[in-house]
Write a structure and sequence with these properties.
The protein is 81% helix and 0% strand. By secondary structure, the chain is mainly alpha-helical. Helix 1 (3-32) runs antiparallel to helix 7 (173-217). The longest helix has 45 residues, at 173-217. The chain is globular, with a radius of gyration of 19 Å. The two termini are 23 Å apart.
């Protein structure tokens, strides 16, 4: 079995684990009205939270590895893009482990992340154009993962106010409670899934780079 197949099967297995965690969370909420701290999708350093942090840390680590190997690429990328993505991922990993954004209530932390996500591509557009021309599949996987992450994460977050104000006026407390936890599940699972797709893309690209480096050494 090739390394690419191992990587793909590992990605599918990881998505199944994430889906299992989401279903376990929803099952406990619907049956018991509460969830064990270990499986809490909205908890600090629970399994879902640790898994997200691991995703982000690994992506950041792969970016640093690509930074080291960039001279061995067909067309070396600049130092900026992998460094910026690694910094963003490590910061997001720290945020996931400590809920740092809660301390930034006086700031709009969503705008901070959106600003970084917009600024990095704008400043590293030459590398992105090259990646699109020569590694289009990788770019598409990253784009799809980022799209799922943003639509699920930020989209579900925007529904929080709708559930709090809209449903509370016309529905029972139980309906509001279950709706809010369903929203949390969608938000956190989308973030996990998006990170997994991006992790797959970065791992595949790194694997290709390592294989090319090995061939050149021979």
């Amino acid at each position: 079995m090739t390394l690419q197949k191992v990587l793909w099967k590992s990605t599918i297995a990881l998505i199944c684990v994430e889906l299992g965690l989401a279903l376990a969370y929803l099952t406990m909420i619907f049956r018991q009205g509460e969830v064990a701290a270990l499986f809490d999708f909205d908890g600090l350093r629970s399994l879902p939270s640790l898994l997200q942090a691991a995703h982000l840390f690994t992506i950041g680590g792969l970016c640093l590895l690509l930074l080291v190997l960039r001279r061995q690429m067909v067309r070396p990328c600049s130092w900026f893009l992998p460094s910026a993505v690694a910094t963003l991922c490590f910061y997001a990993c720290l945020d996931e482990l400590t809920k740092l954004h809660i301390m930034l209530d006086q700031f709009n932390w969503k705008l901070i992340y959106l600003g970084l996500l917009i600024g990095i591509p704008l400043l590293g557009w030459r590398d992105l154009v090259w990646a699109w021309l020569h590694h289009r599949t990788t770019v598409l996987w990253v784009g799809m993962g980022l799209g799922v992450f943003l639509m699920g994460g930020f989209g579900a977050e925007m529904l929080k106010g709708v559930i709090a104000s809209g449903l509370s006026a016309h529905s029972s407390d139980k309906v509001v409670f279950l709706s809010e936890h369903l929203r949390i599940t969608v938000e956190e699972f989308a973030e996990l899934l998006g990170e997994t797709l991006m992790l797959y893309a970065f791992a595949q690209f790194t694997l290709e780079t390592l294989q090319l480096s090995k061939q050149r050494a021979i």
